[in-house]
From TrEMBL:
Family stated for the protein in its record: Belongs to the glucosamine/galactosamine-6-phosphate isomerase family. 6-phosphogluconolactonase subfamily.
Protein's UniProt keywords contain Cell wall biogenesis/degradation: no
Residue span, Glucosamine/galactosamine-6-phosphate isomerase domain: 12-199
Catalytic activity: 6-phospho-D-glucono-1,5-lactone + H2O = 6-phospho-D-gluconate + H(+)
Lineage, broadest ranks: Eukaryota, Sar, Stramenopiles, Ochrophyta, Bacillariophyta
Function: Hydrolysis of 6-phosphogluconolactone to 6-phosphogluconate.
PANTHER family: 6-PHOSPHOGLUCONOLACTONASE, 6-PHOSPHOGLUCONOLACTONASE 3, CHLOROPLASTIC
Pathway linked to the protein: Carbohydrate degradation; pentose phosphate pathway; D-ribulose 5-phosphate from D-glucose 6-phosphate (oxidative stage): step 2/3
GO biological process, one term: carbohydrate metabolic process
UniProt name for this protein: 6-phosphogluconolactonase
Top-tier EC class: hydrolase
Pfam families: Glucosamine_iso (PF01182)
InterPro entries the record matches: 6-phosphogluconolactonase_DevB (IPR005900), 6PGL (IPR039104), Glc/Gal-6P_isomerase (IPR006148), NagB/RpiA_transferase-like (IPR037171)
Amino acid sequence: MSRIVRTATLLVVPTKEEIALCLTNELQNRSIEHVALSGGSLPSLLQMKPEWQWHIYLADERCVPSTRPDSNLGALFAANCLQHIPPDHIHGINEELLEDPHACAQDYQQLLQQHLFLQQRGLDLAVLGFGEDGHTCSLFPHHSLLHSPNHVAAILDSPKPPPHRITLTLKALAETQHVIFVGAGSAKAPVLRQVFEQQVQWEETDSESISVRRATVQMRDPAPFPCGAVTAQQSVTWIVDAEAAAQL
Ligand SMILES: O=C(O)[C@H](O)[C@@H](O)[C@H](O)[C@H](O)COP(=O)(O)O
């Protein structure tokens, strides 16, 4: 049986502070309209430009009101990521359905369907974090949601609180044009060591505005963690700081 070869681009910057700059450079001049963003540390690593008038969706969301600090939409607002986005381009979950995560997930899938999937297109971009246990979005290791045939699914037993959430699935990400993972800090290093195959061969880089180490990496197969199982239509890129890359 033929094996699916999955490669990604790895970009390593010296410190956490440079991740936002590197991410901005990566996003500059790309044709992007529909974007999913996750929560966690991502909002603090993202500097949105006023000219990016994208449609914003949530890669995952906790079933809490967006006024609460643990809401991912709330965190994106609090970090000023959405200040230039027209309100009708910001697509949060239906907060009337917070008590019923399954209905909430179904409702969000319908929203995505209206905007994208009915036109037979996926998202242009998903910018995602990854956890120390290798989860991404709210897709946790060994969880049955990893095999969901839907684009959006509900989780009622998230190991990372709060337990009730909705999430894009691996299927929805696989239909996305570009996926970019971002992460910083030594706690992420063991995950990075395990998701890539063997030794990373660093490539020569032209002088850039920031110092970036670049490599084309092959993803380990089978993937040891949900974040390593993510595929996309055109590209998967990992932007991390030197601490996260220390074990490569
Ligand atoms: O709702 C969430 O918890 C996030 O969307 C989640 O998927 C996050 O991106 C990862 O847990 C990484 O979080 P950190 O970047 O904070 O480690």
